[in-house]
Structures are given as structure tokens and as C-alpha cells.
Amino acid sequence: MNTSPTITVAIADDHTLFVNGLAHMLRSQPGISVILTAADGQELIDKLERADVLPHICLLDISMPNMNGYEAMPLLNRRWPSVKVIALSMYHEDEYPVLEMITEGACGFLGKDAMPAEMAEAIQHVHQYGYYAGGAAAKFLPHGPASAAKRLINITDNQREFLQLCCTAMDYNDIAQKMGKSRRTIDNYRDNLFQKLHVNSRAALSVFANRTGLNSYAQ
Questions:
Q1: Greater confidence, 195 or 151?
Q2: Residue 11 contacts by C-beta under 8 Å, 6 or more apart in sequence?
């Protein structure tokens, strides 16, 4: 018997057939329940304000009428910080919207053509670890020279190791244990890097580490 808690999901997208198909597919996955759908960002906000139960995860389309994903993202972060967002887009060949959504606080990114297994994996990974850097977003994470990255930002050795570990499946408690630091110290590393990089999500830290090659430093 599966005793794992159900992951509740909201979907915001203006294509009705896509939403219905995605909702049906996700409901067929064990441990996932779609509890809310919306046709644009404003409808999503309105429904969340009236909701008795908030979703754990929101699949948020980047391009929508009335209020798009970019516009909805800061409102979601401010009003419902517990709701983790995975950005969606049909046009995932363009790097800018992917990185922009992650920088704004999205915990991951998926192309709308992602396979059902990947959709479910991303939702489960974000729910458990707080980020997902695989799938369509992975192509935007090239490994650049570590020396160049080091010139771009003044980071300490401990912060560098923390960035490396942010690219793994470890949660923050596991990272604290791995580094031999307190959880409070790990939170300080995270918050300092958020300020230096002007980001506010672990996914964005992972993106930075991968794009600059910092994740390839030897520990």
C-alpha cells in the first residue's frame, strides 16, 4: 500500500485541450492529484485566493493572455511562498524565458512536449527537494570555465561547495551534514548567494553553478 502523501497540483495554461490532457495524465500518476486549473495568471490568483487547500506545485505557462507567467510569478512568491512553481512553455528552444522564470523564483522548467514520466518526475523532485534542473532546461546549463566564473563573483570556498551540492538531490539538511555545518549556516550561504546573484530559488543557484562551471570544482 502506498502511504506517501498526495502531491497536489495546480495548472495554469490558456490551451484548454492541453490542460485537460495534462490533468488527466497527472491524475493517472500515483501520488499526484490535480486540484485546480486556470486559463491565465489572473484566474489562477483568483482561484488561489478562494481555495480552501493550496496546491503543493503549480505548473505555470510562461505565455498566457491577461496575466502571463512572468507577471504571475512575483505575486505567487509574495502571497503563497509555499506553492512551488514549475514553468511551462511550448517554445523551449529560447534560453531567455527559461532562465528568466527560474531567476524570478520558479523551481524548474518543462517543455509542454515533455513525456508523462518526466512531468511526474519533475513534480516529485520539486516537492521533495525544492527544485528540478533536468529535462528541457538541462540544455541551457553548459559548463563554462570555472576561472571565469570565479572572476564574475566573489564567493567563498564554502559557498562554492554549497553551490556544488545544490546541483545534487540532497536537501538542505543533507547538505549541512555533508559540509559539517549547522542548518543555520547553510541557510546563510543560501541567502548570501541569493543576494549576490539576484535570484531567489535553489533552481536558479543550480542553473548558475552549471552554466559557469562552478559545479565542476573539485571538493
A1: 195
A2: 19, 22, 23, 34, 36, 37, 38, 58, 59
134-169 residue pLDDT tens: 766 665 544 433 444 444 457 888 988 998 898 888
**Hey, which residues does 108 pair with through a beta bridge?**
86, 132
Q: Please report the sign of the dihedral spanned by the C-alpha atoms of residue 108, residue 113, residue 117, residue 123.
A: positive
pLDDT in tens, 5-41: 799 999 999 999 999 999 999 999 999 999 999 999 9
Name 7's bridge partners: 32
Give 132's DSSP letter. B
Distance (Å, rounded) from C-alpha 201 to C-alpha 15?
Answer: 28
Return the closest-CA partner of residue 201 out of 76, 103, 66.
Answer: 103
**CA pair distance 52, 50, nearest whole angstrom:** 7
Phi-psi region for residue 217, left (φ > 0), alpha (ψ -120 to 50) or beta? beta
* Statement: 146-216 belongs to CATH 1.10.10.1800: no
Q: What is Dmax (Cα atoms) for the chain?
A: 53
Q: What pLDDT, on a 0 to 100 scale, did the predictor assign at position 146?
A: 43
In CATH, the number for domain 7-140 is 3.40.50.2300
- Domain boundaries of the chain, sorted by first residue: 7-140, 146-216
Can you tell me the distance from the alpha carbon of 100 to that of 62, in angstroms, rounded to the nearest whole number?
10
Report CA-CA distances (Å) from 196 to 96, 110, 111, 153, 193. 20, 26, 29, 8, 5
Integer Cα distance of 14 and 185 in angstroms: 42
Angle in degrees, CA 168, 25, 140, rounded to 5: 35
